[in-house]
Amino acid sequence: MNKSLLALAVSGLFMFAQTAEAGVSATVTAASDYTFNGVSQTGNDPALQGSLDYAADAGWYVGSWASNVDFGSGDDTNLEWDFYAGQYFQLTDAVSLDAGIAYYTYHGDDGSSEYQYPEMYTKFGFANDLGQTELNFWYTWDYFGGGADHYISMVAHTFTVAEGHDIRISFDRSTSMDKELWSWDGESSYNHARIAYMTSYAGFNFSLAAEDTDYDVKNADARVVFSVSRTFGG
Q: Which of 1, 174, 224, 228 is most buried, by the most CB atoms less than 10 A from its CB?
């Protein structure tokens, strides 16, 4: 699927959401870059993204998300298309848990399917007087199809600076449990920090984020990422 077909598919998402039953929503996002744990997946170029989700009153949900990608010369992979399902629990008035499994697929090159892999996740939320704190964890036993056990741990905090204006600060660490199968220039892990300003206007959600990693490659250096999105249905 090339970018024009992705754009056509994304434009159809909100048309479907507007006519679908309650609980169905679609989100369309345009971003100046698509970064995954601080590493650009689009060669530092813009991304068009879309998702389609169903959330039940009982807390379970299923969904799909897609974005254009560009892994560089010699690789014609141009589409990431993910699927996920999970359950959201409100454990107490202040504590929540979101647990599920995702499956990442890639398309466009003869070898793109070799990158696909599953991933389990748990996300804890803690509401407090200072905002919302998160402790999140992702684990896969086949990172990017390479057979390596891999996990990501994250701590994040979101707080309101004024009504309708939020700041989210996050720090995460990506770790390969088998350097022989997957590493970052011979290192088993790297760190990623991000700070984002978020607001909304006229039904659109805006984010302006600054992020950096200690992984010393061009696609993981310091950058500013801007995105605008709109959700339909729900």
A: 174
Domains and CATH numbers, the chain: 3-233 (2.40.160.40)
17, 233 contact by CB (below 8 A): yes
**DSSP three-state, residue 216:** coil
Quickly tell me which residue has 């870059």 as its tokens: 33
Task: Say if CB 50 and CB 28 are below 8 A apart.
Answer: yes
Q: Which two tokens stand for residue 201?
A: 């206007």
Q: Give the separation between CA 106 and CA 34, rounded to whole angstroms.
A: 15
pTM of the model: 0.91
pLDDT, tens digit (0-9, with 9 covering 90-100), for 180-207: 999 999 999 999 999 999 999 999 999 9
Structure tokens at 108: 């466009």
CA distances in angstroms from 182 to 42, 189, 217, listed in the order given: 20, 10, 16
Mean pLDDT of the chain: 92
